[in-house]
Amino acid sequence: MMNPSLKNLCKVIPGTIIDGKWHHNRYTIIKELGYGANGIVYLARHDNKQVALKMSDNGMSITSEVNVLKSFAKVQGSALGPSLLDVDDWERPGKKVSFYVMEFIKGPDFLTFLQQKGPDWTGVMILQLLADLQQMHDNGWVFGDLKPDNLIVTGPPARIRCIDVGGTTMQGRSIKEFTEFFDRGYWGLGSRKADPGYDLFAVGMIMVNSAYPKRFTKSTGGIEEIMSKVRKSPELKIYEKVIFNSLTGKYQSAAQMREEILEIHQPDSRARKRTARIQQGAASQPSAKTVGSQPPGAAGRQTRKGYNKKKKKSTFVETVTIILIISLLYFFYIYSQIT
């Protein structure tokens, strides 16, 4: 929660002009978008373009978040966070306020999108989120304060975007910001150390939140309390195993969790993989290779041809044998008549 003095310092009314001290860019405040422990985010206008502007009296916090956004910008083709546009200070009477300006990502938040599209979209959007988290983790960061409020869906085509990087923390350090419902420490299911499992726990709770939009209050805590809610939800039943594994730290990476969700939506994928391995093994055998190199149906025709050839040979042998037996019988008959 933001302290009152900081909120008062950063509180500005619509129409306020923010003049950058160093870069001299001017931003007109339109409205407040939200606030957190380290600052307030506003929708602003600059050169007839809408932008998001975050201000804080905590210069270190601003510097940290700017470094995160710069790091994300180095990931080619990534949608990990908004694009960074400007960093500057705004001098108010008797006080300096640091701010940075970023791309304004327009669209509904995660839960609103699901309410509009239906629960069938849950898996699709979670798959996208996990792909982005894998990139983030590969670059040494943990999102930290991961929750539906910090996820915006743009499009069409629908694309999930992470916003508000204030809780993003370097792996190995203590989580800077968190929201209790999505925090494994709150549920007694792990520490607040920044590691990939912390984010994956939050992903599991985001899936739970999709079925319980108003969330629920912890009573006893622990895995059983959460899973009892999961089992009562028809929408979550298909993901029961995935949610359990994410909440209990079974996944080593976002990619691993993503793979299990893909298998839920493609239940025959493992069977196809096994079949492919068997076919590859068979292809290494000379006889199988010969058959496998033929067009469809050729192996069957070759088998029938061999069978017919074998059958003709067998018939010929039988005919010759019968002729010999008859000839011998006839010879013995003539011999007996003579003697």
TrEMBL record:
Query: Which named protein is this?
Result: Protein kinase family protein
Q: Which organism is it from?
A: Mesobacillus subterraneus
List compositional bias (Polar residues) regions by residue number: 277-293
Q: Which UniProt keywords apply?
A: ATP-binding, Kinase, Membrane, Nucleotide-binding, Transferase, Transmembrane, Transmembrane helix
Residues covered by the Protein kinase domain? 27-288
Q: Which terms in the Gene Ontology molecular function aspect does this entry carry? A: ATP binding; protein serine/threonine kinase activity
Which Pfam families does this UniProt record tie to the protein?
A: Pkinase (PF00069)
Query: Does the entry feature the keyword ATP-binding, yes or no?
Result: yes
Does the keyword Lipoprotein feature in the UniProt annotation?
Answer: no
